[in-house]
Amino acid sequence: MTSESPSALLAGVYVANVTPFTDDDHYSIDTRAYAAHVRWLADHGVTGIVPFGTNGEGPSIAAREKRPVFEVLAAGAGDLQIIATVAESNLPDTLDQLAFLNDLGVRAVMVMPPYYFKPVETEGLKIFYERVLAATRHPVVLYHIPKYAIPIPTELVTSIPVWGVKDSGGEAGYAETLHSAGKGVLVGTEDDLPRRLLTADGAISALANIVPEQVVTLYSHIRAGRTEEAAKLSAHLLQVRAMTKEYASPGVLKRVAEQRHGHPMGTVRPPLVPVSPSFDAEAATALALSGPAS
Fold first, then answer.
1. Residue 280 lies in a domain
2. Mean pLDDT computed over every residue of the chain
3. Residue range of the domain that includes 161
4. In the chain, what are the helix, strand and coil shares in percent, each to the nearest 5?
5. For a FRET experiment, which of 105, 147, 221, 239 has its CA 20 to 30 Å from that of 78?
6. Phi, psi dihedral angles at 184 (to 5 degrees)
7. Spatial separation of the C-alpha atoms in residues 237 and 217, rounded to whole Å
8. Who contacts 272 (Cβ-Cβ below 8 Å, separation ≥6)?
């Protein structure tokens, strides 16, 4: 683990970027659309991207499919930081993916615990992550998303030399405990960002796929202590988030992103289904862009 402080290594707005798939029987990753979307995000001021997480449909994508995308991203990232998600659900595939990523210039790796067996003992998770740490040269972010995977106890995070967590659980006191122990925290949801970012180094945002400049502005307001401006923008983003959650699919983010930058974003991969043809992408985009002026 690096000797840098958490905020020196990872801080700012990261995008839980979506994965465009071809709209045919193969559902292949559309690498051209993927790269175009990432370039657009970079042009709108985000710190980095987090490929193949939950909104990136990572658990639906084979490790071999991810590798060419990781190579392209690492080669052309420039100043854009990449936190590579490893969510392979078992130890051997996790270690194989980490070995592949060792040769790439990613900023960190975000490793989800195996997500089938519940409950598991903290000791079992510790053994898993000790093997992870031994296998990677990159700083490790633990992916705490108890809705879908094994919860990561705070005592585990503080007992091993990881950077910290992506907190997608939001339990009271969770981030505060880790922050006070010197671990890094990236907020994994847009709920109450003005408060939650006070004990976090940054955010991994799904909404930043469609309103990157607004999420970046909100982060800047919070860091500068502009509480009134932050509250207004946060209230707007909660409305946008509520709209996206109505459809329970990353497809809505793809449709709105497509409206914004004009690059076709394809479809989702089964078992997810596309948003209804009746979804009004123009109206959704107008809502997303209707927030307070920065």
1. yes
2. 94
3. 9-288
4. 45, 15, 40
5. 221
6. -80, 150
7. 11
8. 57, 60, 249, 250, 251
